[in-house]
Structure formats: C-alpha cells, structure tokens
Specification:
8% of the residues lie in helices and 39% in strands. It is built from two helices and nine strands; from the N terminus they run H-E-E-E-H-E-E-E-E-E-E.
C-alpha cells in the first residue's frame, strides 16, 4: 500500500500523528427496543447503545465515565451511542463519520452523521481517557430491517 507523505514538515507531522480507525457494525432492527441486535467486527473494542440495548455500561473500566451529550438514543430515529476502546491515552478526537455498507454501495450516509459524544469525546474518571465516545444518527429506522454500516474515527494519541 503506498502512502503519500507531505514535504512540508508541519503537515507531515500531522499526517504521522493522526490515526484512523474503521469498524464495521450491523443493526438488526426490531419493533421491540430490547430485541434490537447490535453486532460489530471488534466487540472487544466497540460497544453500542440503542434505545433498548446498552453494551456501553459493561464496556466501561472501573472508575471510567462516559457521559454522552445525547444520552437517550432512539430506534425510530436511527440514533446510537458508541464507545470505542483505544487502550492508549486519547489526546483529541478529530472527526467521525458513518459509511453505508449495504448492497447499494459504499457511501457516506446522507442525512446521517457521527458526532462527538461529549465536548471532548474522551471518557473521563481515574481510569478514563483511553476510549472515545461518538453519537450517531444512522439515517435508518432501527425498528425494522438490517443495516450494515461502518464507523470511521480520526484521533490523536496523547503524548
């Protein structure tokens, strides 16, 4: 795989320190919120929360806090909260987006979005700072159907 490295030292430094992580996930919708199925390719690193299913609480470390700005995801609106365990001190979250992986192609979702889960998107507490938080609007109704997506996150590890 070839990779372009900028000649400008400031830009080159930024290229080298920004990490990109892509994790595919699936939402199997159900009219009963507790029966929505949330799956992903990295269950030890990614936890999701829908209206009736919460994988995030179990994924938190002792004394770690994940306080989401949008604390109440809704299935009909396609809203999810997500915790991504980096296992290194996260310095800053630079951006996040969603990609549609369904049969109609790999596209960034129109009408959907991935937002910082809080002001910094980094967990807090004595054990915090090694995971990031994202709130998502998938653009799909999670009360029915199967939705295949990928979360793309850009972040910098703290020095």
């Amino acid at each position: 795989m070839s990779r372009y490295t900028a000649k400008d030292s400031v830009i080159q430094d930024r290229q080298l320190e920004v990490n990109t992580l892509v994790i595919p996930f699936q939402v199997v919708g159900n009219a009963t919120p507790a029966n929505v199925v949330l799956r992903n390719d990295e269950p030890g690193r990614m936890a999701l929360q829908s209206e009736g299913v919460n994988q995030i609480t179990a994924a938190l470390l002792a004394d770690e806090t994940a306080t989401y700005t949008d604390a109440a995801p809704g299935d009909a609106a396609g809203e999810l909260n997500c915790l991504v365990r980096i296992n290194e001190p996260v310095g800053k979250v630079l951006g996040a987006s969603l990609t549609n992986l369904d049969a109609d192609g790999f596209t960034v979702l129109a009408g959907a979005g991935a937002n910082l889960g809080s002001a910094t998107a980094v967990t807090t507490g004595t054990a915090g700072g090694t995971a990031l938080m994202v709130s998502m609007v998938t653009g799909s109704d999670h009360t029915s159907g199967t939705h295949n997506l990928a979360l793309v996150v850009h972040y910098v590890v703290a020095e």
